[in-house]
Amino acid sequence: MEIMKKFEIAGASVAGTTHVKRGINNQDFFHWLFTEEFVVAIVSDGCGSTKHSEVGSRILSTIFAHCVAEYLKRGKKIESEKLFHCAQWWEEIRHDVLARIRLIAQTMGEDWWSVLRDYFLATLVGVVVREDTTCIFSCGDGFFAINGGLQEIGPFEDNKPPYLVYGLTGSEITDSDATLLQIQRNLIIPTSEVHSLMIGTDGVGDLVNLAERPLPAQETLIGSIDQFWSEDIYFTNPIWMRNKLTVINTEKRRIDWEGRNIQRFPGLLPDDTTLITLKEVKVWNKCFVMESLSLRSKKLEQVKRQLCMPLVAG
């Protein structure tokens, strides 16, 4: 079974209103590799209190995804469940990624520790899908869902998640609990049991809570989070998810002529919000389709005959 034939994928990100008001870039990023043999997808959330963490979230998620892909190719003949359960395999990936990040940081300035702090503090939530096994993994906080079951990763004490590069810089968080430096395997499940999934940054929590709220200046409800992995439009139209998040987070204004004032309807997602969704491709039963087409053809022939029948004078 080729993975590309089993799943379709979509993703989007939107800057939070608090960042927009302050003129700060979206510090989230998402990246995926979608091949015939596997899918690697990652969402990343840059630390909001550092200067340029949007750079780190972009670079870190991209490097991590490609590094996982390299290790998957090396372990092509190894059963996925054994591979994903192997702590050493994930440790080798982590050290490999950190080595590449350190090299980049060292070329950006003599004080590479400060470079790491200013640019590369970012969380990761990811998924690896192979033919036999699927694994959700993370370093930091966020969300994931499998077949509609939503799970939160974290939150962590004082809203201080463990960042991957703490493996280079150290921190009071990971010094007290070194296991936080490890790549966490949040769920390992047979791919045959996966019909839909989602990974998201912590901003998804706000999106979940908006289900019964209307869109800004509209009566239409935002709707449940499961729309993003259950409705076909998000996969057939590549920009539909981004457009939906943008509408949710765009301030609208309406003139109240009677009250002689302007009503403001603010965007509803304060934090940067990013998600990637996968959905099982619908496979139509060939016999059912052929039978339906045959019946349709017979009905058309009947209509044609009726239209061509001569009129009989009464």
Write up what this structure looks like.
The structure is a single chain. This protein is of the alpha+beta class and 314 residues long. The protein has a single domain (3-283), classed as Phosphatase 2c, domain 1. Helix content is 38%, strand content 25%. It is built from 13 helices and twelve strands. It has a five-stranded antiparallel β-sheet. Strands 2-3-4-5-8 form a five-stranded antiparallel β-sheet. Mean pLDDT is 89; it is low at 285-289.
Strand content: 25-35%
Report how far apart the termini are.
66 Å
Radius of gyration: 25 Å
Helix content: 25-40%
Residue ranges: pLDDT <50 for 5 or more in a row?
A: 285-289
Any guess at the CATH architecture? 4-Layer Sandwich
- Shape type: globular
CATH superfamily annotation: PPM-type phosphatase domain
Overall tally of domains? 1
CATH class division: Alpha Beta
Number of H- or I-type helical stretches: 13
Main pleated sheet: 5 strands, antiparallel
Task: Spell the H/E element sequence.
Answer: HEHEEHHHHEEEEHHEEHHHHEEEH
pLDDT averaged over residues: 89
CATH fold-level topology? Phosphatase 2c, domain 1
Strand-pairing-aware structural class? alpha+beta
Number of strands: 12
Strand order across the biggest sheet? 1-12-9-6-7
How do the strands and helices of this protein lay out in sequence?
Elements: H1 3-6, E1 7-14, H2 17-21, E2 28-34, E3 38-46, H3 53-74, H4 80-85, H5 87-106, H6 112-119, E4 122-130, E5 133-139, E6 142-146, E7 149-153, H7 166-169, H8 172-176, E8 184-190, E9 196-200, H9 204-208, H10 227-230, H11 233-236, H12 240-248, E10 252-256, E11 261-265, E12 273-280, H13 286-308
Antiparallel strand pairs: 1-12, 2-3, 3-4, 4-5, 5-8, 6-7, 6-9, 9-12, 10-11
